[in-house]
């Protein structure tokens, strides 16, 4: 990572995204990464029971979201993630050109999302964090940095820390307004720091749960709860303020201290947390986005047949992902 970081200040010329329908076909390696990204987002959406969130039981604290809508949005983003992966593969270095290209592709992906959902914001945060990680994973593979979660998240942090001249100064979205109102860093700060809540909280919680022999769904719920216990989630702040955030963090810690989602006591606390989140109309969307990022990085690290390393084998076999 030191070599990549040292090259950050070398400026690349920004590249303009292709018009819709005019982008060349993505490489097999990019398609494989995009497939993992879409799967991670879809698997996060299906996971149940998630406190306050859309899942297989229902709409959670949302009046405008459903699981079918979330899944339609996730699958619509596949080509955008493939384009981000190709941008990472083709970038000679971690520099301003790559940052601005990923930013432009991210804004294009938001338009795709809104078109697929009829104007509903389903995955703006996921586009930001997963898009950065997809581009970083692709670039890390060309830089010989491998598919480890640490190197990918560090590369993503280096990309996110660079200025994008074309990014709106203020977007007016709820997460941004919550950052200003409550003095928290939000999704941008999390990315610039290299996703520490993913690498230091969620991934270890996921793997500890697996080591105890718990089902994958329980392991992922425990990873989500680890995120909820510490994250200053701007989605919760926007909906229910600081009291709602305090309730979420304390409730998630109570589940974990009771043994996690796999124990009888933990499940009892989880039901209480869910009921309280619904009563407050609080939905931990930021934690959900980071859980999707956790699933993506975990799959890259453990599933070499689908990850960056094995994608080169897919080139030879004609695999085209999505």
Automatic annotation (TrEMBL):
Catalytic reactions on record: 3'-dephospho-CoA + ATP = 2'-(5''-triphospho-alpha-D-ribosyl)-3'-dephospho-CoA + adenine
Pfam families per record: CitG (PF01874)
Top EC class for this record: transferase
Top-level taxon in the UniProt lineage: Bacteria
MF terms in GO: ATP binding; glycosyltransferase activity; triphosphoribosyl-dephospho-CoA synthase activity
Keyword terms: ATP-binding, Glycosyltransferase, Nucleotide-binding, Transferase
EC number in record: 2.4.2.52
InterPro entries: CitG, TriPribosyl-deP-CoA_syn
Family the entry assigns: Belongs to the CitG/MdcB family.
Entries under NCBIfam families matching the protein: malonate_mdcB, PRK01237.1
Role, per record: Involved in the formation of 2-(5''-phosphoribosyl)-3'-dephosphocoenzyme-A, the prosthetic group of the acyl-carrier protein of the malonate decarboxylase.
Protein name: Probable 2-(5''-triphosphoribosyl)-3'-dephosphocoenzyme-A synthase
